[in-house]
Design brief:
157 residues; 2 helices; 6-stranded mixed beta sheet; mainly beta; globular
């Protein structure tokens, strides 16, 4: 049996371009419908605010802003994917969660240096699926050490 990973697949749209991303299901705690976060003064630009998720305060990050792809427009399909980033719970705004799938490790290529303006440091690879390419994100590297420390402070205010 070939080794495979299970991924939560979501999309981020930039105009007419739709990019598909995958995150290992082991890093995803849950997927929630988008709620209006409480804004925070002096938070990084890509931090939309905080929400109360069953008694736990978590920061909400706009992945589009983080990747310099504009700002997310909230629709009925918009979701917050609640992930673990080095022990810290964070919600990331995505345009749509499309599926959970299994991808053979043999179908994953190393990432190119830059993919659509996204630094390769955020990526673990590119998954090949028939006529689709999945950009595999490394959630632990989405934020710099300073940003992680800042968000940890935000979540504990």
């Amino acid at each position: 049996m070939a080794e495979e990973i299970q991924l939560v697949v979501f999309t981020i749209r930039q105009g007419e371009v739709v990019c598909e991303y995958g995150v290992p299901i082991t890093q995803v705690q849950e997927i929630i419908t988008m709620v209006n976060p409480t804004k925070l003064p002096q938070a990084p630009d890509f931090v939309e605010g905080i929400i109360n998720l069953r008694g736990k305060i978590i920061p909400i990050i706009d992945l589009k802003k983080r990747f310099n792809m504009g700002q997310s427009q909230v629709t009925d399909d918009t979701r917050s994917v609640v992930v673990e980033v080095e022990g810290q719970t964070v919600g990331i705004i995505v345009d749509e969660v499309s599926e959970v799938l299994r991808l053979p490790v043999s179908s994953i290529e190393p990432p190119p240096a830059v993919v659509g303006g996204i630094n390769a440091e955020y990526l673990t690879g590119v998954g090949k699926l028939d006529d689709r390419l999945l950009i595999l994100l490394d959630m632990d590297k989405i934020l710099s050490e300073g940003e992680k420390a800042e968000l940890a402070g935000v979540a504990h205010k």
